[in-house]
Amino acid sequence: MNEKLPVATVPGGNITSNFRGLRGGFLLMLLSGVVGSFSSAEGKTFIGKEISDSNSPIPFHITAKEVIGVVTDESGEPLPGVSILEKGTTNGTVTDLDGKFSINVASNESILVFSFIGMASQDVPVGSQSTLKIEMASDTESLEEFVVIGYGSQKKREITSSVANVGEEDFVQGGMRSPMELIQGKVAGLNINRTQGSNPNGSTDIQLRGLTSIVGTTSPLIVIDGIPGGSLDLLQQDDIESFDVLKDGSAAAIYGTRGNAGVILITTKKGKSGRSQFDYSTYFQREYVDKKPDFLTADEYRGLIDQGLIDEVNDLGHSTDLYDMLLNKQNLSQYHNFAASGGGENSSYRASFYFNDAEGIAKENSRRQFGGRINFNQTGLNDRLTLAANMATNFNKANLLGGGTGDFEQAIQRNPTAPIFNEDGSFVETQAYNNYNPLSRYANRISERNQQTFSGDARLSLKIIDGLTASAFGAHVRDTYNDRYYQSMNDFANRPTSDYQGMGYASKYNYLRWTNTFESTLNYKRMFGTDHSLDVIGGYSYQYFTTETFNVNNNGFTTDGFLDWNLSAGSAINNTQLPRPGMDSFKEDNTLIALFARASYSFQEKYFAQATIRREGSSRFGANHKWGNFPAVSVGWELTKEEFLANSAAVNNLKVRLGYGVTGNQGIGNYNSLVTLSTGGVYPQEGIFYQTYGAARNPNPDLRWEKKREWNLGFDFLLFNNKLGGSLDLYNRETVDLLYNYTAQQPAFVRSTLLTNVGSINNKGVELYLTSTIIQNSDFSWRADLTANTQRNKVTSLSNDVFTISWIEDGGLPSPGNLGNAIRVEEGGIVGNFYGKRFAGFTEDGKWQFYKADGSIGGAGDMAQEDLTIIGNGVPKYMASLNNTFTYKNFDLTLFFRGKFGFDILNTKDLYFGNKRWLPNNLLESAVTTHAELDDDPQYSDYYLEKGNFVKLDNLTLGYNFKLRSEYVRNLRVYATGRNLLTITGYSGIDPELQDVGFNTGIDGRGFYPRTKSFSLGVKVGF
């Protein structure tokens, strides 16, 4: 008896020309290629092994009953390619081009599972039936899901603003340094970038829809479980349920003064009533250098000596790779998270505990943290009273000594023939400009941070009557850290000939920031008949912020025995020949108070409208402008519920949204509207020296909010039997009353500058999100998700009739060379413009030549200010990401690509280290290859600008999900992840992904902290 794979009978007949027929035919042919060839033994094909005639051996699979039928959609049209599986078995088939099927099942107790792209799956008991007619409904479940929108939630169907939701199933895979990396590339218009790569102590830059301020906050407001300004340090990747990004003004206006740069709402996992569950997640991760700088080896350096470019006295007889010596090649990061959850009829809980030990690719560069999160919910009074409480804490210890940008710069420029150690084992030290031995510093210094972060909140909600709920919410967030620093007596900077006279130095820095939040709301929800739905919420918000700092330092320690734990032992307190000890303390605070309201209306779940108003006051602004109003309105129309689209075969759901909103920015320092005092000199009086004080800033009673006015037109759609879904948003935002420090006339002003509101910025952009399950059957599926956006940022004004400024400059280039600023933004100009000289070639002896404004050519000394011009731009015009998820039986594979396009990079690494004038320091290889013709001092021009376009294979994850029949283990998943595996770019530097938020964009700095690729192995198990 011949064995055959499961197949399906295809009856004769013509293939229809309608869309479903074409698509069904394609899927059917694709399925046939996967599961086997078509067969028609006497017109029938059975699942499993073929049943032979009576003279054949006993068949392997005996079926007890044949079931036939047809599958249609809601309009009655046949559906080809529907997957049909006998539940609990591998017995299955697919429908033919006419939607018909035939399957043999084991018994009347069998259950058939019908599934199809864009349709809701159905479980159908066979029972005594032999013929089935199945009508599959469109899968609109996603439209009924709730999205957090700030002070409440809404069904996706009802959303009228630009809101992006990313759930746990769509998070970026693998080990993350920051929780924000979970949605990197997942939200169109949201730019998330770690400018220091895998440095465990590096920060994360976040910017939504471009630049919105010059001196104010440019990052979105983070709200964690209802706490505005929640700490990301309190989040671990396995404790997060979802991210909801409020992108436009109509969505973010509910947060008023802090909504200019958008709002990111983070919801953590909560307990659920039912059987107690335990979940454990772990991974181990190793970092590897992705691309090493092409600096000269010792042999190549000696080759330059042979060529006469370097004096032979610079051959110090060794072969040293300091870059390699600074690497922590045995780095191993690990993560563990254990959670317990469950609950009864009236209460639920979830508690998690974690340990995260992150080691950087650099030596003396790590961050170890542990902590936990507890959530508790309880209802009473016949489910009318609910208490929800959360508590989270994080303890972390960071080694800050290594990983500085200067350390790897030393590795690039240090003479590769110079030794690191003397013969007696001591360190070789240098006193040349910008030269030091990093390994010596590692051996003789301590730089650590011990940090504790805590968050506690509780929400009490009372259902007063049906539809009317009152709630009160209180939260306390506390963040404190202690920095300790010590320089040993043996440190080269403390040598006997230095100011420290061979004695040690120690310092302490203490930081404390805490926030109290209280918010109360009254929420009314009601259906009027079957057509009208109303949701109204009003509330009061109060937040108080306090920051305290204290620092002290001393020197003159004649022993290293105390380190930094006995500051009074330093003799500098009494020895005036030593640098003076220092101490300082500081405290500041500010208050935010707001009243807000929002009303959402729906008619026949077809027409939607929402209006928001927030009136907010901040202590940061002037006496004449303490309060501001932030209104918003948005509408939505579901066109597919109209007759002209109701029966469309191609358009399953289409909603158009239009919104307008005003938000604010109060992200500036405290007391900027007031006169504050600062210390001056001292004056003697009767032998006593008294401290003097003077005005630290000019007062500005008219200091007020920056305001952003934003229009957003959006479309949400499901097409082709829900096979293709997504959204398209077009926005135009104008930020007015920009804050900047302008020159103040003296007199009448006491100080030379004044922070005041003058300018404006315009941002325009288009954002696209597409998702499609391209293939789906019982064994294999392929889902693709695309996000893409384009943006333009323009400074429309910088001056008025009182305060005038021609341009703003940024991106100062370091010494040597006094090269000035690389970036200039002029009134009416685009953000991120490089401003400088235009390269015109080299002279015969390798000297610079540049174009002057009149078209003539001159040397570096001939260039005047009017010869400079815009030479490039460092802000990406386009960003895109593509995520592919494949599943085959229990396996899953994720391929995630990201890219940025349409921008320039200033390669300052080449500017300094790709120039032979840097000799006898070491050089990049480009100094004697690409730039071999150059023989002149460094100059900043478009010669060093390169196209930064890139595409990265940012994440590849292969996982396997075990299907266990155990009363103890409910799920088990193992996976392997590689990150930053491949970069396709024309940029010659180490990594084209640089800081591209704010004004200082597109500059590849002189630091060489390695960019890495990482590999991790992980396990997730549920009990």
Automatic annotation (TrEMBL):
Pfam families: CarbopepD_reg_2 (PF13715), Plug (PF07715), TonB_dep_Rec_b-barrel (PF00593). It is a multi-pass membrane protein. It is found in: Cell outer membrane. Residues 401-981 form the TonB-dependent receptor-like beta-barrel domain. Residues 155-263 form the TonB-dependent receptor plug domain. Its main location: membrane. Keywords: Cell outer membrane, Membrane, Receptor, TonB box, Transmembrane, Transmembrane beta strand, Transport. Belongs to the TonB-dependent receptor family. This is TonB-dependent receptor. It comes from Echinicola arenosa. The lineage of its organism: Bacteria, Pseudomonadati, Bacteroidota, Cytophagia, Cytophagales.
